[in-house]
Endophilin-B2 (Acinonyx jubatus), 445 residues
Amino acid sequence: MDFNMKKLASDAGIFFTRAVQFTEEKFGQAEKTELDAHFENLLARADSTKNWTEKILRQTEVLLQPNPSARVEEFLYEKLDRKVPSRVTNGELLAQYMAEAASELGPTTPYGKTLIKVAEAEKRLGAAERDFIHTASINFLTPLRNFLEGDWKTISKERRLLQNRRLDLDACKARLKKAKAAEAKATTVPDFQETRPRNYILSASASATLDDTSCPLSWAEWKEEYPGGWRPPCFFLLPLNPSVTRARGCLSLQKDRKLWNDEVDKAEQELRVAQTEFDRQAEVTRLLLEGISSTHVNHLRCLHEFVESQTTYYAQCYRHMLDLQKQLGRFPGTFVGTTEPASPPLSSSSPTTAAATMPVGPSVAGLAPPGEAALRLEEVSPPASGTRKARVLYDYEAADSSELALLADELITVYSLPGMDPDWLIGERGNKKGKVPVTYLELLS
């Protein structure tokens, strides 16, 4: 194992310096380099994007998969990089139960036949739901996850680096400020050379200090080093760097000033390096934060695709249920193939308007009971009073010869007959006549 003690000690020193700087900033004992207003706005915008993306992602997952246990299972499969097993939808499971019930209760009975028809419709609804979940996961959930697990992690990493560079920069500023203060204090202390007779007796404190093992020079060496005289140890006069004091013991004021000049030069050099690294990291982080605008554009496109897939899903559900109502009402004893009616134009108006004007098929209870004779149009004549004009809202394709096909925005004459289903009217257009659903019409006064 390659264990570098020097690097470990250096990293520990840097971490301790940053921790001290951060703590002093929190207690208001140190200055902090502030970012410009534009940069702060970019940071706030990025944080908001991340928070709301997480909330939208979680709620969309709940919408697509309401079962929390199934969501946990899918999450574990995703983290283990394994394929999620195919799961039966609720509609398909209901269809399976209905089909089994019809098989046991009697597929030829009215109840069994109806169960089979409803089971087929529920199966189609389950398949439509499966397609919707698959499409929404690919076109909407996956891009949101990619942003949180990719781009946002990169942004967070660069922001942490920027924070460390700022702490290093502020620590260098504080170090330079202290060095300049000590240099100014050393400059104000007057230098002197004391002359004394050779038989001058040192005070006890001075003798103890000079004889201390922390001073590497003997008295003879001291006089040779400083022939003009002697002075008390430098750390009695000004606050020196402890490491310098221990290394040299007793210094002259001239050397003290030189050391502090060197210390100031070194601090200025470190400050320039720290400022350069901070500016470079700030520019990198700024570019990443400005890329949030591109993320919004991408999420907007995904949101449109999600709406389109959801619109298709609900339109399919509407067609399947309308077809089921027709089967239950008009063909109670026989199962017929699905005949997809013309769906209302979903893109001709806003989603709110389309949802408000979505036609609802005729109720099952109001349709003709089994065994009722089919309406003979040739025998139908309009009443003396009670005819009205109606405008067609949506295209309608006739299911059989007794119905009248409609085109949107055309005007027809409509009227009702005694005992007729209230959800239907007789419509006439020229020499053509047939039943039309009330929900596809706008009656005019």
Summary: The mean pLDDT is 76. The radius of gyration is 44 Å. Strands lie at 388-392, 411-415, 424-429, 432-437, 441-443.
